[in-house]
Design goal:
This protein is mainly α. It has one domain. The protein is 51% helix and 6% strand. Strands 1-2 form a two-stranded antiparallel sheet. α1 packs across α2. The radius of gyration is 20 Å and the shape is elongated.
Length: 159
């Protein structure tokens, strides 16, 4: 009696971790896109204030709604990109992908945790971002806190 040998599932080769300059370049691209979206969201509030800035003195409730809407725009911008494709347009331009440690796409929960952790990375003068210069696996604080990583995607072959 012979038994069939089942081959082990082939593991995807580990992608190289993204270096800080490439990550920051993608961040600048995304910041420009996000700035445009935030400007559109802000413009939607101008008819409610007669074209004036939304301020706490004029309307505290409107100020809270305004800030919450800006936060929602940021979460949706990253969440849609990361949960569907694993990358934003800026990340795609620099051939980067954010993924969970097991290589899968982020969930909405992962997105929120990663964004909150990114704020923590920026607070002490960007030390959380600079951490990847010293980490063997090129992880930032928000990579570690959210159990994610940013990797370089190989070029697609031509033809």
């Amino acid at each position: 009696m012979t038994t069939a040998i089942t081959p082990e599932p082939t593991a995807r080769p580990a992608r190289p971790a993204a270096a800080l300059p490439r990550r920051l370049a993608a961040l600048v691209y995304d910041a420009l896109l996000l700035l445009g979206l935030l400007m559109i969201a802000t413009a939607a509030f101008l008819p409610l204030t007669g074209g004036e800035a939304v301020t706490w003195e004029r309307s505290p409730v409107l100020e809270i709604v305004y800030r919450a809407s800006l936060a929602a725009v940021i979460v949706v911008f990253y969440g849609v990109s990361w949960t569907r494709q694993g990358r934003t347009l800026g990340m795609a331009s620099w051939r980067l992908r954010v993924e969970r440690l097991d290589g899968s796409r982020l969930t909405w929960r992962d997105t929120v945790v990663r964004l909150a952790a990114a704020v923590v990375s920026w607070l002490p003068a960007g030390l959380g971002w600079a951490w990847c210069l010293f980490d063997r696996e090129r992880r930032t604080w928000h990579d570690m806190l959210s159990r994610t990583r940013v990797v370089v995607v190989p070029k697609k072959p031509r033809g």
